[in-house]
Write a structure and sequence with these properties.
Blueprint lengths: L2 H8 L7 H7 L11 E4 L4 H4 L3 H11 L6 E7 L2 E6 L1 H15 L12 E5 L14 H16 L3 E5 L7 H13 L2 H7 L1 H17 L2 H14 L3 H25 L16 H10 L3 E4 L2 E4 L9 E4 L7 H16 L3 E5 L5 H13 L8 E4 L4 E3 L15 H19 L6 H18 L7 E3 L1 H5 L6 H17 L18 H11 L1 H11 L3 H20 L7 H24 L9
Parallel strand pairs: 4-5, 4-9, 9-10, 11-12
Antiparallel strand pairs: 1-3, 2-3, 6-7, 7-8
The structure holds arginine.
Arginine (ARG) binds next to α13.
């Protein structure tokens, strides 16, 4: 129910459009002034009347619909109080109709490609990958909910001379049993060893290049070794994706574009955009205050940007996307600006639909700096396990009787990590602390999950069944606390839309915290289950609506909500 629209339809001001009135309606800072207000100052000039006179006049002309209880003219504002029984009925009916699992909106026929997580083969999946994975996975669910078709793309980093080096290290020192057992960690160590040995044996570099050439030329044995490294890496990250509830529709990574770059290079050539620079081929971007975009190296090798140009073209041709999002750290700001600018110079009208969604750095409180070269990293797997262990300990203390502690601890521990990644504006650097993330009282996932479980327990105590709403006494929910909760419930879809438009799942996180806090205030002030049957029925319904909204909102943030904890 859009109350602003009801008010905008109601108020008529000469020479002012409905849209303009709609946009002017705001929320009064003091609740005793009502739920909405229309400040009349901005109409003063054109109407040649004082704001007070305008508000008085508007009030005298109003014929109030059932949704609105009263309108008052106060010091140049027209203040509206909603009819709270109607607010409760409309609001709760709408949520109850959505059921326990909110269905996705009907398809709008638009596709949004989301490039996220995009792991590098034979590199450890560390805490630095948390944000791209969580943000992308959340945006994937958000866009699907809103009726888009989201296409999740894991643009694998599976190309480059480093893989020749890795094969060379494997041939010299590799041990299959060890690799089988320790996976990427073993590969990583081989890679580190290669670099330390190459310091004293420069011929190694040449050998690495030779092996990469063999991969490029499709040499059977070398390709087979490399493919195995790929499988091993993907098998490991898949375990994390499963824990986070993340899926991809495509794993077309850098190597996928090997045979798709030539047409793009030819097109750049045809359009006169490729110029020579020290033997390399580049696109000049000096008009846009950017360094040139490197397309081909001196030796004819392609680059990361060349692959991204081919990938963008491929995605356009394959998915006909409405938007193509790249959820990648802000360190790559320049890279994407260059790639998008080159697409624009090529005359691709859809270049403007390619959007870099950058984010800041994550580090662990008291943790050491992350460095892949030295092989010292904080693995995401370890972070999740630590959080789950800690969660289990807390749960054991708080609720020793709880069944299925391990399953609940998994939801709480993993949820705590994901929520801390998603609950601040994405561009901010974040220092992550286990204790803060796992607190049951702070602005955390466990707090939301706990509120959800509290709702579940109230509903089960009250024997709640979602039934006929015809006999409900909506007046029971006219108090301030209930009205606050219902007003928030009413905003859910707007918030999700806003999160999608700004690519900011944190707006949903903030909203869920507000909703949980508001419900907990209601819960302190009002007995849900009492001898008053009518009050009990209405308050149980409100509780059920909060529960389903928390659960569905959390799921947009990749977080599960346990029934008990
Ligand atoms: N694998 C890259 C990295 O770890 C991220 C790839 C992002 N996607 C893209 N299309 N460039 O830095």
């Amino acid at each position: 129910m859009d109350y602003k629209k009801i008010i905008a339809d109601l108020v008529k001001i000469d020479g002012v459009s409905k849209e303009e009135i709609y946009a002017s309606i705001s929320v009064p800072p003091r609740r005793e002034n009502g739920e909405f207000c229309l400040p009349c100052f901005k109409f003063s000039k054109s109407l040649r009347m004082s704001p007070v006179a305008i508000a008085d006049k508007l009030k005298s002309e109003l014929v109030l619909p059932p949704e609105i209880q009263s309108a008052e003219s106060v010091a140049g504002y027209l203040n509206f109080k909603l009819n709270r029984a109607v607010l409760a009925e409309n609001g709760l009916r709408a949520v109850a109709e959505k059921g326990d699992v909110f269905a996705n909106k009907p398809s709008n026929g638009k596709t949004v490609c989301i490039d996220y997580s995009s792991v590098n083969i034979a590199k450890p999946f560390h805490i630095g990958h948390l944000l791209t994975t969580a943000l992308g996975g959340s945006l994937y669910r958000i866009f699907n909910y809103l009726g888009y078709k989201a296409v999740g793309i894991n643009h694998l980093g599976d190309w480059g001379t480093q893989f020749g080096k890795l094969v060379s290290a494997y041939k010299r020192w590799g041990n299959d049993a060890d690799i089988e057992k320790r996976g990427v960690t073993a590969l990583m160590e081989l890679y580190v060893k290669f670099h330390s040995e190459a310091d004293s044996e420069p011929a190694l570099e040449e050998e690495g290049r030779r092996y990469f050439k063999l991969i490029e030329d499709g040499d059977e044995e070398t390709v087979r070794i490399f493919e195995r490294f790929k499988e091993l890496t993907l098998k490991e990250v898949q375990k994390i994706y499963d824990r986070l509830g993340i899926t991809f529709d495509s794993y077309a990574g850098e190597s996928f574009y090997n045979d798709k770059m030539q047409p793009v290079i030819a097109e750049l050539e045809d359009k006169g955009l490729l110029i020579e620079s020290d033997g390399a081929k580049v696109v000049d971007l000096s008009d846009f205050d950017m360094p040139p975009c490197l397309i081909l190296k001196k030796d004819g090798a392609t680059l990361y940007a060349t692959r991204d140009l081919a990938a963008a073209q491929y995605r356009h041709d394959t998915y006909d996307f409405y938007k193509c999002l790249y959820v990648v750290a802000y360190q790559q700001n320049l890279h994407f600006k260059q790639v998008f600018k080159v697409l624009e110079k090529m005359g691709k009208s859809w270049a403007a639909d390619c959007i870099h969604v950058p984010f800041g750095m994550v580090s662990l409180e008291g943790g050491e700096a992350l460095s892949t070269r030295k092989g010292k990293v904080v693995l995401l797997r370890d972070v999740l396990s630590t959080a789950v262990e800690k969660a289990e300990k807390i749960i054991r203390e708080k609720n020793p009787e709880l069944e299925d502690k391990a399953a609940v601890a998994e939801m709480v521990g993993v949820g705590a990590i994901v929520f801390s990644a998603l609950s601040t504006s994405r561009i901010k650097d974040m220092v992550f602390s286990y204790d803060k993330a796992l607190s049951f009282e702070g602005e955390t996932a466990p707090y939301l999950q706990y509120t959800h479980a509290r709702c579940a327990s109230i509903l089960s105590k009250g024997n709640y069944k979602c039934g006929e709403l015809g006999n409900m006494d909506w007046n029971v929910l006219s108090d301030d606390e209930s009205a606050d909760v219902i007003t928030l419930l009413n905003r859910y879809d707007d918030v999700v839309l806003d999160a999608a438009e700004k690519y900011e799942p944190c707006l949903i996180a903030r909203y869920l915290l507000d909703l949980a806090q508001s419900f907990n205030r209601f819960y302190i002030d009002h007995r849900v289950i009492s001898d008053d049957k009518k009050a009990t029925a209405a308050r149980l319904l409100l509780t059920a609506c909060v529960k389903s909204t928390l659960k569905n909102g959390l799921s947009l943030l990749l977080i599960n909500a346990p029934e008990k904890m």
